[in-house]
Amino acid sequence: MVAQDLHAAPPLPPRPLHSLLIPIPMVCFLGTLATDLAYWGTAEMMWADASAWLLAVGLLFGLLAVIAMIIDALGRRLSSMRGPVWLYSICNALILVLSFFNALVHSRDAWTSVVPTGLILSSVVVVLLLLSGWIRRALIYRRGPGAER
Hints:
Number of helices: 5
Helix content: 55-70%
Number of strands: 0
Shape: elongated
């Protein structure tokens, strides 16, 4: 058995609060694209209704995540991110704005509530979600100057 000195490791920085809420809107917006594609293929109104509900829940938790991110910024919990956090914030704000307009589009009746505008907006939001995740990962795992690979 190897004895380890537990006090030698530096303490981990506190985990940002917004990172606990981010997965909920991500899943809702991904689900919106899936239900939009299902509606496009079947023309069953249930899928359009599911998209509208997923957008509503995603927007609600997205706004809660924005509030949590502001609290994180004020409490200096974003210190684990090294680099331009503003790029990550702008990408997430753009996701919420486009999702809000997508919710307005999905509030229309019948076929025009999803095809083509709602489907295009859902696709753009998913691409932005992937970009936001990539930026977040790059900010957290960025090596400092002189770090070994």
